[in-house]
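Q: Got a minute? One more chain.
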Amino acid sequence: MTRKGLLLSAALWLVTLSFLTLLGTAQTRSPQLLVLEKEDKSLAIVNPQTLKILTRLPAGEDPHEVVVSEDGGRAYISNYGGFRVPQRTLSVVDLVAQKALPPVDLGPLRAPHGLDVVNDKVYFTAEGSKAIGSYDPKSQRIEWVLGTGQGRTHMLKVKSDLTAIFTANMTSDSVSVFEPDKNSDASRWTATVIPVGKAPEGFDVSPDGKELWAASHQEMVTIVDLATKKVTATINVHTKFANRLKFTPDSKRVLISDLGNGDLIVLDATSRAEIKRVSLGHGCAGILIAPDGSVAYVAVSSDSNVAVVDLKTYSVTGRIPTGKGPDGLAWAASR
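A: Always. Here it is, folded:
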């Protein structure tokens, strides 16, 4: 090979090596904690090891909840506006390039709030339209919409096998279980509406799929057996304004945030007794539990920080200073 050919081959090899290095870095990037700063209309990207904010990106008008695509590459944010001017968009952020992308226009669907991602589809509530729906990022289309018939369908959770979708309906004082009709095509669903406590907002389904726990604004948690779709128990958790409820990954504990007084309440999922009550400040909202179950991140909205709570000692091990009104939280990691 000539000297010119050798130089060209070397240059091509260096370009290829650089590309593969960049690709490998993108695929193995460190996990990141995402924090929505509602009043600042921004998404903060946080290093969960150092608790330092790496960057902030635009999150659209009145951002409330955030979820991450299954490959960890994009964040989807609900632009709510339910108490002022109902919005109709999902903001989108490229987490690899760290830039905002064009939002998803939901057309006539108003006040999107609750979000979930299953099988690469983004599921959302449209509270202002009494509906839920799904967006397909590949086709860039709203592919499915279903009316709920309930007031303020606020939050939702979708089973990973798409055999059920659960919603909390605040002004109807109910939760709904939507299931595909096995005797018809996939376009038909059946709905079971279950009355629960006053103004249910935060809710979760146990990791084993057997129970749904819904926290009302007025002290009560309602437990629903999902096999029978019947209420089996209610618990007075002595909250002023319960906001979010989450099971730990091992199913053993349930965490509830109190927007009214800033407490984080920890319950034993089996005995249903209170284990611990941790005062975090003023106005606790969003809860995110790390994938390994070691810590919980709790948005202390009124104090503009996120508390890091050790789930073995129930002590606060750190604080992340944020912009105004932190709320929705998500975990981003390449997969």
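A: The chain has one helix and 28 strands.
Q: Perfect, thanks.
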